[in-house]
Write a sequence for this structure.
């Protein structure tokens, strides 16, 4: 039994609850129109909140695998990360692995749809074990240290129409493709989708004039809650006398995303709340009209002993019933419509079933009830203040 059924069941034996239900049924057209206003408002405010939350979840899922990493780069004026600096990093606690990376850019040409096309790729020198920690394989295997093998990103494989076993040529050097990586999307460590990955020996052959050391170091931490203190400790160890490296914590990206999408959700919900404001005015109008039409009835009730509190209770119960029924309908329609939209837009309806999305549905539900009660408060107060004789004389 849901919350609406429980409250209605609790009030079903109450005389004023029965009068409230009767009065809502008596003016069914106005009641339905007022309920539609609440339903639209609940759907609007819940849907806007769910949309903003789903966008946030979708984007943060894309960056989920980078939040536990530190990117160590040479400070401005420095050429590379040295082996000595890597040794200093290894003495820092809370580090699971250290992955040194060197890279160079290449323009490659290939034919597509009968035309010559140029594309930019990044060639990476990275240890096989380090690459395994950063990305998964779609097909084939990882390269062997010291070999002429290479692994290519999904975009490179698609553009060049590559399969495992084929060869690519970079600066007149041929590399055999032994693996194709899964598509990972945007990353702040390395660009795996448009990259070619090979062993240190092969990289040195391709770029014999490259500087010693590394372009960046990816540090994977054990405890993400300690990532900021780990970054501080790396800087303290290496930048004692002068700034030699800069350390970027990737978890700051997801934190900023949370703030941005939180603001977007709040803005969207603010737009949706306008619908509830309109619904509140509609309820106010319905209840005021009901008060005027039932003036004599209120006078008779007061003449036979009904108190101000009783009259107030009856009118507020009307508003409560209206809010409960309409808000429940709005919440159910939000869930049903949201499931379809999520499946079509995000290709993942699971975002709708998260606790944060359910929070927005419940928020819309209670806002609908609150709007209904606020809209019915003044008419209820006005009805309770009527004098019996004046009410009985009303024409």
């Amino acid at each position: 039994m849901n919350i609406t059924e429980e409250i209605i069941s609790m009030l079903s034996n109450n005389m004023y609850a029965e009068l409230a239900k009767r009065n809502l049924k008596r003016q069914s057209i106005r009641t339905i129109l007022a309920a539609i206003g609440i339903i639209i408002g609940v759907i609007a405010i819940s849907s806007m909140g769910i949309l903003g939350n789903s966008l946030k979840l979708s984007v943060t899922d894309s960056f989920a695998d980078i939040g536990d990493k530190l990117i160590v780069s040479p400070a401005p004026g420095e050429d590379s990360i040295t082996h000595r600096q890597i040794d200093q990093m290894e003495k820092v606690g809370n580090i699971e692995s250290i992955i040194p990376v060197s890279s160079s850019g290449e323009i490659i040409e290939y034919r597509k749809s009968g035309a010559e096309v140029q594309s930019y790729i990044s060639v990476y020198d990275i240890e096989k074990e380090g690459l395994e920690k950063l990305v998964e394989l779609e097909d084939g295997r990882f390269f062997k240290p010291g070999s002429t093998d290479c692994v290519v990103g999904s975009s490179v494989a698609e553009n060049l129409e590559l399969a495992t076993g084929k060869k690519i040529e970079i600066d007149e050097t041929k590399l055999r493709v032994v693996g194709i990586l899964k598509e990972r999307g945007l990353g702040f460590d390395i660009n795996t989708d448009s990259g070619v990955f090979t062993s240190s020996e092969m990289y040195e052959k391709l770029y014999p004039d490259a500087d010693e050391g590394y372009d960046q170091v990816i540090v994977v931490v054990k405890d993400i809650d300690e990532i900021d203190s780990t970054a501080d400790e790396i800087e303290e160890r290496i930048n004692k006398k002068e700034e030699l490296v800069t350390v970027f914590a990737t978890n700051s990206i997801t934190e900023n995303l949370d703030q941005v999408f939180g603001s977007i959700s709040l803005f969207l919900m603010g737009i949706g709340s306008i619908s509830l404001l309109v619904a509140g005015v509609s309820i106010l109008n319905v209840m005021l009209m009901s008060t005027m039409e039932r003036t004599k009835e209120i006078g008779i009730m007061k003449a036979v002993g009904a108190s101000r509190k009783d009259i107030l209770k009856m009118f507020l119960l009307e508003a409560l019933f209206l809010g409960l029924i309409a808000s429940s309908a709005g919440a159910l329609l939000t869930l049903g419509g949201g499931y379809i939209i999520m499946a079509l837009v995000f290709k993942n309806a699971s975002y709708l079933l998260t606790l944060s999305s359910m929070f927005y549905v419940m928020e819309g539900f209670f806002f609908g009830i609150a709007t209904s009660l606020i809209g019915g408060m003044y008419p209820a107060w006005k009805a309770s203040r009527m004098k019996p004789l004046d009410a009985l004389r009303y024409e």
